Amino acid sequence: MMSEGWMWVVVGVLVALTALTRSFFFLSERPWALPVWAERGLKYAPLAALAAIIAPEIVNVAPGGPTGWVDAKWVAAPAAAAWAWWRKDMLSTILVGMAVYLSLKLGVGW
Fold first, then answer.
1. Contact status, residue 91 vs residue 47, Cβ threshold 8 Å
2. What is the C-alpha separation between 35 and 100, in angstroms, rounded?
3. What pLDDT score does 62 carry?
4. pTM for this structure?
């Protein structure tokens, strides 16, 4: 096991490395240009992160919890997906999905 002193040294080194790697863009004298493929890929990063957070929650069935279409998330997810396909707007998709989920959860009691 590590002593408390070594733990603080490790934390300090990690903080310094994080600050250094994140400041490379600010320390450069000329602006950085990303390749076209990287810029195109970064457009999908928020959607990928959102899907990585939401997808496991949708398919996870709690023991003793509701199953099938009685579960509000199984109705809210397709509603949000249909809205996303129609409107192509991430913020309104989140709002619609949560509105459907909360209305079923609080209003109907699912």
1. no
2. 40
3. 73
4. 0.61
Instruction: Tell me the two tokens of residue 105.
Output: 């959860």
DSSP state of 66: -
Instruction: Tally Cβ neighbours within 10 Å of residue 59.
Output: 10
Q: How far apart are CA 11 and CA 43, in angstroms?
A: 33
Assess contact for 71 and 58: CB atoms under 8 A: no
Give the residue from 57, 96, 53 showing the smallest Cα distance to 88.
96
Overall residue count recorded for the chain in this entry: 110
Which amino acid is it at 38? Answer: A
Residue-level pLDDT, tens digit, the chain, 110 residues? 678 889 999 999 999 999 988 887 777 788 878 899 999 999 889 888 988 998 888 888 777 766 667 788 889 999 999 999 999 888 999 999 999 999 998 988 87
- Residues 6 or more apart whose Cβ sits within 8 Å of residue 93: 80, 83, 84, 87
